[in-house]
Design goal:
Strand order of the largest sheet: 9-10-11-14-13-12
Strand content: 15-25%
Number of strands: 14
CATH superfamily of the largest domain: Reverse transcriptase/Diguanylate cyclase domain
Shape: elongated
CATH architecture of the largest domain: 2-Layer Sandwich
Helix content: 40-55%
Distance between the termini: 64 Å
Low-confidence stretches: 390-396
CATH topology of the largest domain: Alpha-Beta Plaits
Mean pLDDT: 84
Number of helices: 13
CATH class of the largest domain: Alpha Beta
Length: 396
Amino acid sequence: MDSIRALILECRFTSVNDEQFISGVNRLVSQHGDSVYPALFGILTTLELPHATAKDYWQLIVTHRRELMDTLGREVDLVTTISDFLQNKTKLLNNSRLVDISIYENVVTDSIHDRLTGLFNRPYFDETYEQQVSLAQRYQTELAVLFLDIDDFKEINDSFGHLAGDIALQRVAEIIRDEKRDSDIAARYGGEEFVLLMPLTQSLNAAILAERIRTKIEATAIAFKDESFSLTISGGLASYPLDATDPKELLGMADRALYLAKGAGKNTISPFKQDRRRYLRVPLEREVLIKPMDFVNEPYTTFTSKNIGMGGILVFGSIALPVGSIQKMSVPINGGTPLILIGRVVRISEIAPGSFEIGISFLLREMAKQANSEIAMFLRQNGDEAAPPKPELSYF
């Protein structure tokens, strides 16, 4: 019920007038059934009404509003109509109070929305996702899930500062909100990752919407102080029941499709396809030593890799590395000098109690910086002995 209340509030907040709100309520009823009606009255009047009664009252209120407007010859707002109906038609107004929707909305918004972007938050998405999959299973309809992740987001923070990163997140969220349909549910999944749930949507239509979002983001210049920058986004798409019927498996497929998009060069949308993964990754089953970047004295932790591609590596371990953290990896190659890689943790899934599957996207620029630093250190330590000595410097 809380998720339905949130959808009603979202509809009320985004509707420009009462007519649009009434149409939005009708759409919600078509998607979620008669449970919308008692939730609607709970929000607007604090009355707890049975489903059938709430449905009858709402239909009578809509009709009553049209009659009032015809009689008065002017627009009559919904709150006035509800008040008049409850007082004169039902005598229930003495047992209820009309709620200032903005006050109620502030309370609910704080609990289900992400403060920075205004999209729904992860807990709300998780709850709604389970409900939407159940509805798709019950009515044998289709549903699509799209994961989106801003490419090289850390570089935006490093180059322009975290305030610019916040503005980028807000702009991406705005584009997603503008491009999605009213029935779609958009959420900030965590960090710079977003998720879009598309009920009653075929895979092809979901791919068209995903590509429209990607193109719009790519073409958007983000102004910050006296500068501007652009960004791109990668996405992974999976559909019910085409790809999976189990909710967790479906999310995992969308997640892996996003990883596939990153490995394919970023700035692309990849539908989940089981048979494509082998061409973009190669198996790599061996121990991998991982520790946080820039923590010199931090010990390495042993993980086991599964596969590796141009864009990243997939590992398993008993420790959940923080999403968004930068990690340094030492990968042994055929008994020779280990391959040193640097990457950012882009996702993590608990595949069993105490066992985690972790996707790490390579940071090529960071690896280049590390290589340049090591080369510079080597040159300093092994410079030409015939070169004239430089004056000594003291560091305090």
